[in-house]
Each structure stands twice: as structure tokens, then as C-alpha cells.
Amino acid sequence: MAHISVKQILQKKITGEKIVMLTAYDYPLAALLDESGIDIILVGDSLANVVLGLEFTNQVGMTEMIHHAKAVGRAVRRAMLEGDMPYGSYKTAALAVKNAKRFVTEAVCGAVKIEWFPGCEKVASAIGKAKIPVMGHVGLTPQRASELGGLKLQGKEAQAAGAIIRQAKLLEKAGCFSIVLECIPAQVAAMITKNLRIPTIGIGAGANCDGQVLVTYDLLGLFTRFHPKFVKQYVNLSDEIKKAVGQFFSEVKTGKFPDAEHSFSMDPQELKKVKVGGHT
Ligand code: KIV
User: Fold this and answer.
1) Does residue 45 line the site of ligand 1, with CB under 6 A?
2) Distance between CA atoms of 69 and 103, rounded to whole angstroms?
3) Cβ(199) – ligand 1 distance below 6 Å
């Protein structure tokens, strides 16, 4: 089965069909997301927080990202698979192309994503020229959260909003096929969406984007260390897991598990011949 292409993603901007994107970091979850029919699966550097227990996304590098992207790549048959370029991996155009190629050749990714920094248009353009589709990311860019005053709403004042709009335009001009808008006022996201030819994908950016992305562990209630306002939790898997583990715990303690159904038995005639302490 062919993966969803850049052309198909661009087409959705024209038809108005919303783009659905989620993150994955491992084989089983990626398979479930792919089977659910979503458009884009991002191996996000949110891997750092939600899977590896680190505090900041800039604490993961190419080694961790490629390791997880490979696992996700083994499961994804239909969605576009995208690798999130980690902090430090796209400082220069040459480094960016080298690392973007690793996502494509080692982890079968069909695209990569970079977060905005001054001058990143050159990086985006170099990746594009290497024939690797690239998605931009503006607004709250977690890799540089410390420079942005923390993980908080960006573009609240007119000047800051204007800067984000310019960044999005620059990334479009540089050849990005789509842009993530993170944690900005809905009105600013709507303006960007209206003024770009490429699709916008919002996270904490209101309803008027061309698509939406969430961190899957947030949506599933598997990551509870912090809870941004823009996250909607659709199920509480943490509670479900604790319930199941609690049941296993008590069944092991009381001897209820394993029962005959979950055990193997030997033919009684054969069993008689078994010598305890005998030679093999
Ligand atoms: O790393 C990530 O999960 C992301 C998404 C929030 C877009 O960049």
C-alpha cells in the first residue's frame, strides 16, 4: 500500500478536508494509528518527555530519534511517516540534509519537520532541494522554549503575532509543504491559514487550521506529568492500565492466575516417565 503523499496533503487544503496528524514512538501504537486511517504519523521529539522521562525535547538527539523512527517505520503502511529533526541536528544546511537523509534511508520516513529559528529558511530550502519534503513549525517551538519564556502561548501581542506570520510565510517560500502552528491565538492561526497556499496543522492554535495534531500519549491519557490547556484527553488509559495491573497483582497473589486455560499440561503416561534429578 502506498503512503499518503505530499500531493495528497496539499490537495486537502483545496478540498477543505481536515488533515489528522498524531505522534508515535513505537511499533504497536504506530500500527494502531495507521490502522485508524490518520494522515500523518510524526515521530516527534516529544519522545523526550512522554517516553524517555526527560524534561525538555532538546535532550534527545539523532540516535534516539532514529532508533524510535525505525520501530514506527516497521508498522506504518498507509500514513505519511515524518521524522522530527531533533535539536542540534539542523544547525546548518549541510548538517540538516545529512540528518534528514538518515530519517529517509534508515527509518523509511517520507518527510521531516524542523522548528523555526532565525535563518532556518536556508535549512528548509536545502532539505527540499535534496528532494526530502519538509514541514515547518512556528509559534511555540519547544526546542527553544527557554528563549521563548517557557512552554507558553506565543504571539499574544500584535508585534509577536506579526513575526510568527512572517516566519510562516518565509517557510512556505523556502519550500515547506506544510507548517505546524503551536500554541498561538486562534485568530493569528486563522490569518496564517488564510494567507498560505500550504496547509497549516494546529496544536493549541484553534479550529481554523487545515489540520490538527496532538501528542498521542496526551490524547490517550498516558502522559500525566503536565496537561496543556489545548490537550483534549479522549480516554484515560492510565486508569485502565492501573486497573488491569491491579487485577493481575491480586490474581497472582491469590493463585487465581495462571489457571488451566493459560497453562500447558503433559500427557499423564509421558509424565510418569519423567525422572526428577535424572540425566538428560
Ligand atoms: O514533538 C512533537 O510531538 C511535536 C508535535 C507537538 C507537533 O512537534
Assistant:
1) yes
2) 7
3) no
Local confidence band at 224 (pLDDT 50, 70, 90 cut-offs)? confident
Asked whether the beta carbons of 198 and 172 are under 8 A apart, the reply is yes
Evaluate: CB of 180 within 6 angstroms of ligand 1: yes
Q: Which amino acid is at 100?
A: A
Task: Pull the grid cell for residue 20.
Answer: 489528522
Give distance in angstroms: CA of 179 to centre of ligand 1.
Answer: 12
For residue 32 the three cell numbers come to 494502531
**Residue 111 forms beta bridges with which residues?**
82
Q: How far apart are CA 81 and CA 133, in angstroms?
A: 11
Indicate yes or no: pTM above 0.90.
yes
Q: In terms of Cα–Cα distance, which of 128, 99, 126, 100 is closest to 112?
A: 100
pLDDT of 259 > 60? The answer is yes
Query: Residues with catalytic annotation?
Result: 182
d(CA 154, CA 139): 6
Backbone conformation region of residue 66, classed left if phi is above 0, alpha if psi is from -120 to 50, else beta: alpha
Mutational test site, ligand 1, from 113, 143, 184, 214, max ligand atoms within 8 Å of CB: 113
Our answer on whether the CB atom of 185 is closer than 6 Å to any ligand 1 atom is no
Query: Average pLDDT, stretch 224-236?
Result: 92
What's the 184 CA to ligand 1 centre distance in angstroms?
15
pLDDT tens, position by position, 186-201: 999 999 999 999 999 9
DSSP reduced 3-state for 173 = helix
Count other Cβ atoms within 10 Å, centred on residue 219. Answer: 17
Question: Any idea what DSSP says for residue 207?
Answer: S
**Torsion angle (degrees, nearest 10) of CA 174, 184, 226, 19:** -60
